[in-house]
Specification:
36% of the residues lie in helices and 17% in strands. By secondary structure, the chain is of the alpha/beta class.
Length: 274
């Protein structure tokens, strides 16, 4: 089983006093492309004005350019500790046990725009670059698309793609049994389902945490749905190649959710006073 997550634009600072070691990163077939893109980003970041435009940074974000300029010599930390934001708050990697973190390293990958897919405990520096950054002479879709798709095509077993569609464009998951895109939805008061946007991130993080804490290497969509049902997590087969993760909330038909979350049966009972 492989759970494929999107990255976050926000990163935690600091780390171990060890610079990036290319040889330790997962999927070593991507090393040449990683190094080329990192060099291009460092070069771009030597000109603050050009980098600000290329990376779409506001005036309060100029410190991100310094991060990029120093990324080849700056401290590193595990991927699941480096990224911050709503999804990674839901995952809450810092509170996982050592065995759970080891399980995550085998079964969770994060698709970085800069470094391609990385496993959970790969050590990386802080940086700023996203799927729509404009790197001179390197179009990201062309740079990554075929190579990342090739890496993912060589995976076996259950592949759960929780990335945003923007990151899918940087390397599609294979079309095969057991490879599915996870779409977070919520029900309207009239019973219809609507896809969530920003607020899907928390549900994805909590879903990933539940899978990691289960310690189960699920082998098929059927096993996944059976596992989720036992946990009180609502999953259903959606469009071809997709499964739907139902967030525990209801929406007014034209409205916007205030939050989204998944709960196990016990947690739902606790919230209801049961």
């Amino acid at each position: 089983m492989l759970i494929l997550l999107p990255p976050s634009e926000t990163k935690r600072s600091g780390g171990e006093a060890v610079p990036l070691d290319w040889s330790t990163l997962s999927y070593p077939s991507l090393t040449a492309q990683r190094r080329a893109l990192a060099r291009a980003l460092v070069k771009l970041s030597r000109n603050a004005k050009t980098a600000q435009a290329a990376l779409k940074l506001g005036r309060t974000q100029l410190c991100e350019i310094d991060r990029n300029r120093l990324l080849l010599t700056s401290p590193t930390m595990p991927v699941i500790d480096r990224y911050t934001g709503v999804l990674y708050d839901g995952l809450d990697a810092a509170s996982l046990s050592e065995s759970e973190r080891a399980f995550a390293h085998t079964h969770v990958a994060v698709h970085s725009a800069l470094l391609g897919p990385l496993h959970a405990l790969d050590h990386i520096p802080a940086y700023r670059m996203s799927h729509d950054s404009r790197i001179p002479e390197l179009a990201l879709k062309k740079h990554w698309g075929a190579s990342v798709a090739g890496v993912l095509a060589r995976t076996t077993g259950l592949l759960l793609d929780l990335r945003s569609e923007a990151y899918v464009a940087l390397g599609a998951a294979p079309v095969r049994p057991g490879s599915v895109y996870v779409r977070v939805v919520a029900e309207t008061v009239d019973g219809r389902k609507r896809a969530l946007n920003h607020f899907n991130k928390k549900s994805k993080g909590e879903f990933t945490r539940a899978l990691v804490q289960s310690g189960e290497n699920l082998g098929s969509v059927t096993e996944l749905i059976d596992w989720a049902t036992a946990q009180g997590i609502r999953l259903a087969v959606g469009a071809p190649g997709e499964i739907e993760l139902l967030a525990e909330q209801q929406l007014a038909s034209p409205g916007v959710p205030a939050a989204s979350s998944i709960y196990t049966t016990k947690e739902r009972g606790d919230r209801l006073g049961g």
